[in-house]
Amino acid sequence: MKRLAVFCGSSNGASDIYIEEAKALGIELAKRRIGLVYGGASVGVMGAVADAALEAGGLVIGVMPSFLDEREISHKNLSKLIVVESMHERKAKMADLADGFIALPGGPGTLEEFFEIFTWAQLGLHKKPCGLLNINNYFNPLIKLFDHMTNEQFLQEKYRSMALVDTKSTGLLDQFATYQPPSVKTYIRNKSQT
């Protein structure tokens, strides 16, 4: 893996642990010589992961839509900042640049980014790992929802297992290093449809 995309919040969160673990991820990426691709902001969890990776000598590429340049306060010290026109272009550019995807705690935008890329993997549009860095058990309700989807047969078990989860960046990155994608999604006809 040369570069990983990280989806995360532009806020700090309610606990210092979110910033601390975001920094730990940035340092670990630099240590493993894996570039960081992220949303380009200098604030919140986004800024923390970028700053830590940069301070540890890592490559950091930000991708920011022009209309958010001032609102999210784009980072001025990145290895590279790519300004695009829309959120759609941002996600497509991040997907093109990255060899895998990690969601850190964030709000609806973070989840939307993660779910789109996770769905693309399920459909076979890419074979890159997708993971949740479950800092402070933030994603426990989402993990429970994945299990519920599987139990209710709206998500096949082999796709449920595509959502890699760990509470520490080292464990998650180790899982990424050995990830094997499942076969491409197929649909099963109900007997009433035949």
Describe this structure in words.
The chain has helices spanning about 15-30, 45-55, 85-95, 110-120, 140-150, 155-160, 170-175, and strands spanning about 5, 35-40, 60-65, 80-85, 100-105, 130-135, 165. A 7-stranded parallel β-sheet has the order 4-3-2-1-5-6-7, sandwiched between helices. It is globular and about 55 Å long. By secondary structure, it is an alpha/beta fold. Helix 1 (about 15-30) runs parallel beside helix 2 (about 45-55). Strand 2, helix 2 and strand 3 form a beta-alpha-beta unit. The longest helix has 16 residues, at about 15-30. It is built from 7 helices and 7 strands.
Q: How do you describe this structure in short?
A:
Helices cover 41% and strands 16% of the residues. The chain has helices at residues 16-31, 44-55, 87-97, 108-122, 140-151, 157-160, 169-177; strands spanning 3-7, 35-38, 60-65, 80-84, 101-103, 130-133, 163-166.
Helix proportion range: 40-55%
* Count of individual helical segments: 7
Tally the beta strands. Answer: 7
**Run of helices and strands:** EHEHEEHEHEHHEH
What share of residues are in beta strands?
15-25%
| Biggest pleated sheet | 7 strands, parallel
Return Rg in Å. 17 Å
Secondary structural class: alpha/beta
Shape: globular
What spatial order of strands do you see in the largest sheet?
A: 4-3-2-1-5-6-7
Q: Any low-confidence stretches, pLDDT <50, length ≥5?
A: none
Distance between the termini: 44 Å
Which helices and strands appear, and what pairs or packs with what?
Layout: E1 3-7, H1 16-31, E2 35-38, H2 44-55, E3 60-65, E4 80-84, H3 87-97, E5 101-103, H4 108-122, E6 130-133, H5 140-151, H6 157-160, E7 163-166, H7 169-177
Parallel strand pairs: 1-2, 1-5, 2-3, 3-4, 5-6, 6-7
